[in-house]
Amino acid sequence: MKTHETPPSTTCATLPSPSRRIVLVGLAGAGAAVLTSPLAGCAGPGVAARSGALPDSIAEAARGLRARQFSCEELTRSYLRGIDELQPTLNAFITVTAEQALDQARRLDAELRAGKDRGLLHGIPIVHKDLYDTRGVRTTVGSEFFKDRIPNADATVVARMAQAGVVSLGKTNMNEFAAGISGTNAFFGDAHNPWDLTRSPGGSSSGTGAAIAAGLCLGGTASDTGGSIRVPASWGNITGIRPTFGRVSLSGVYPRAYSLDVAGPLGRSVADVAALLQAMVGYDPSYKNSVKSPDEDFSKDLGAGVRGLRIGIIENYTYRDVDADVARAVEEASRTLARLGATVVPVRIPMLAGPLEYSSLFNILLYEFNQVLGAEYRATANKKLFGPIVQGNISRGEKVSREFYDNALAERAQQKAQFREVFKQVDALLTPTLPTVAPVLSASGDTYDRGRQFMLPFSWVGVPSISVPCGFDGNGLPIGMQIIGDEMRESLLLRIAAAYEGATAFQRRRPPVHMTVAL
């Protein structure tokens, strides 16, 4: 059971059955998951939930907790009731940790009463993608093969966020082994987009994206190899940031492709994502690709605006093979940034049509995925324990030669350096996050593959990028804009995204399927 350089103390033990303290979802096999037991006690004896709307942001929740308008426990109970309401519709969760979440909330309430305040995330209910190891809570990686896998320690990110004071509501649905961007899952059932239940919520971090978009939590963890943070952000009208490669530890996170994987947050707004990212970053010697990065406050410059910044539109790339509604939305977004004081200029990056062309890079991903899972897959007699996307990825990965892969790695450093030359001309780059709005869940693989053109090149060169809502198509489906920066420039990307978000109203629009529960 591979993880990203997890030290011996965080290896996993497979136990015969999950803890009885956990409400389990989706054990029945393929098809839509259902709660196998109700969230009993969520109205709680002796706890009278105050009436009123749930907080719309992490900062609003933090203010309410400290003003004693509501408690961590009341906030958590409300979100658990919302999950109970919408899980049968969205199938966003694989495991809901109701009792554990309430226990966490009570402890955090006691800390606040005693004067111990862990910071902005103290008492904030979030979710974790189900490839992050969680001690005592099953971590399936979205696969029947690991349906009873229970780690005995938390992933580094999970531990850091717990230290920051979050309440974990559960583990979210995902493409099996993070293979794909569709949000489909042959065993646990597909996750559904709250903007249109027939459409993809985006993957592989599908459940995290759907839960946030539908108001079932205030944020969550995700991972991104070839787009799995940015895709659900774009198709769910939420925000997600893919950090610089190595800036967030992947110790205790099941890998998809070692040289491309990153961990990062999804949230409703830029400020929420900045707060979540703050808790996630940091050097970790147990993760071999971990890098030491600046000690900075990601929220500090969110109000600084974009005046004086230069933002690049990539010639023959930003609007290449992009649907008309998406192109119009991104063009209007570029004009908004210009009105806010940025200078929008054309730039040329010829390598995006050459060595960084996404279909070639996808072969590198498939080769590494075969190295991660191939031996275990081939040694398993019952191949039906693996879904069709995973089986197809393994088959394709087996055909990628070691020579091709070694040559690609040998050229990577030079390609990264050459690509980063563009940041001598501009502060950031602008593209659509995806060339389309969310397709129907049953769309072909070619339809989903088309979305990789704006994902994999930036994953390969290791630079950060953020997806922020920038409009809707004629059917009311969300469109996302991607902003790309140089290494370690997450604060700048968050600043640009915040300026744009503050000048528009797209982020405040809610989907047709949204939690109705109140405090």
Tell me the domain tally: 1
* Structural class category: alpha+beta
CATH fold-level assignment:
Amidase signature (AS) enzymes
Strand order, main sheet: write it out: 7-9-8-13-14-12-10-11
**What Rg do the Cα atoms give?**
21 Å
Strand content: 5-15%
Please provide the count of β strands.
14
The succession of helices and strands, N to C, reads: EEHHEHEEHEHEHEEHEHEHHHEHHEEH
- The CATH class, by name, is Alpha Beta
Distance between the termini: 41 Å
Oligomer state equals: single chain
Overall geometry comes to globular
**Spans of 5+ residues with little confidence (pLDDT < 50)?**
6-50
Most strands sheet: 8 strands, mixed
Q: How large is the count of helical segments?
A: 14
CATH architecture name: Alpha-Beta Complex
Mean pLDDT: 91
Textual characterization of the structure:
Residues 6-50 have low confidence and may be disordered. This protein has an 8-stranded mixed sheet, sandwiched between helices. The chain contains 14 helices and 14 strands. By secondary structure, the protein is an alpha+beta fold. The chain has a single domain, classed as Amidase signature (AS) enzymes, CATH 3.90.1300. It has helices at residues 58-66, 72-90, 98-113, 156-164, 206-213, 230-236, 270-280, 324-339, 358-379, 388-398, 402-420, 445-450, 456-460, 490-502, and strands at residues 12-14, 23-24, 93-96, 125-129, 149-151, 167-172, 220-224, 239-242, 262-267, 310-314, 343-347, 428-432, 465-472, 478-484. β13 and β14 form a beta hairpin.
